[in-house]
Amino acid sequence: GQNIDQPTEMTATEGAIVQINCTYQTSGFNGLFWYQQHAGEAPTFLSYNVLDGLEEKGRFSSFLSRSKGYSYLLLKELQMKDSASYLCAVRDPASGAGSYQLTFGKGTKLSVIP
Amino acid sequence: DVKVTQSSRYLVKRTGEKVFLECVQDMDHENMFWYRQDPGLGLRLIYFSYDVKMKEKGDIPEGYSVSREKKERFSLILESASTNQTSMYLCASRASGGTDTQYFGPGTRLTVL
């Protein structure tokens, strides 16, 4: 099984930097995803980490430490449109069906204020 | 452009009704998923399918069944809807291999009265 924890809500100021943390306790691990979900819309893929270290993609970066069971999503130069929920998801290789499942955290609702 | 579509954005049904939620993807993906999303509980996996006519239970399959007769279509069935099945239902699909990104449909907001 998987246990994934992330803060419920965060608030940050336009133009600032915010870090959203995710910790996980898993029986198996084969990668971690971050998704963005605007209110009333479907989640969209942001990033994927399977090895330790930082993955940078424009204003967004994601970090993984497998030994610590820890990841964070870093958002720079915040814009109002970044107000959304951010979902951390762990890939579990042990589905027993030749495929795998994603287990999602409950999401962090980020509010960007002027 | 990848595309996952769901038959309805909003649906209102009565307790005891049989409900069909349809999902279609045009990316030739092998894997398809049904989730429900509730405030404070996040996304929870109901069922998934890794091939035509194959299905696997997720974390919360009780009260649901699924059908995958064609590769592009994955249906979620509520045999007898209950009020506790009021939720947002999200379908997703994914290829096998690579970074295996899951693509989500727009969701169906189901209300059971």
Compact summary:
The complex is a heterodimer of chains A (114) and B (113). Helix content of chain A is 0%, strand content 58%.
Characterise this structure.
The complex is a heterodimer of chains A (114) and B (113). Chain A is 0% helix and 58% strand. Chain A has 114 residues and is an all-beta fold. In chain B, the strands form 2 sheets. In chain B, strands 2, 4, 5, 6, 9, 10 and 11 form a 7-stranded mixed beta sheet that branches. In chain B, a hairpin with a 6-residue loop joins β5 (42-49) and β6.
Number of strands of chain B: 11
Shape designation of chain A: globular
The computed structural class of chain A is: mainly beta
N→C terminal distance of chain A: 40 Å
* Helix/strand order of chain B, N-terminal first: EEEEEEEEEEE
Note poorly predicted spans of chain A: none
Secondary structure: helix percent of chain A:
under 10%
Mean pLDDT of chain A: 91
Strand tally of chain A is 11
Largest interface pair: A-B, 24 and 27 residues
The overall average pLDDT of chain B, rounded, is 93
Oligomer: heterodimer
Q: Work out the radius of gyration of chain A.
A: 14 Å
> Counting H and I runs of at least 4 residues, what is the number of helices of chain A?
0
What is the CA-based Rg of chain B, rounded? 13 Å
Main sheet: strands, sense, barrel of chain A: 6 strands, mixed
Runs of chain B in which pLDDT lies below 50 for 5 or more consecutive residues are none
Strand content of chain A: over 45%
Write the layout of secondary structure elements.
The complex is a heterodimer of chains A (114) and B (113).
Chain A lengths: L1 E4 L3 E5 L4 E9 L5 E6 L6 E6 L3 E5 L2 E6 L4 E6 L8 E9 L8 E4 L3 E6 L1
Parallel strand pairs in A: 2-11
Antiparallel strand pairs in A: 1-3, 3-8, 4-5, 4-9, 6-7, 7-8, 9-10, 9-11
Chain B lengths: L3 E3 L3 E4 L5 E7 L5 E8 L3 E8 L6 E2 L7 E6 L2 E6 L8 E8 L8 E2 L3 E5 L1
Parallel strand pairs in B: 2-11
Antiparallel strand pairs in B: 1-3, 3-8, 4-5, 4-9, 5-6, 7-8, 9-10, 9-11
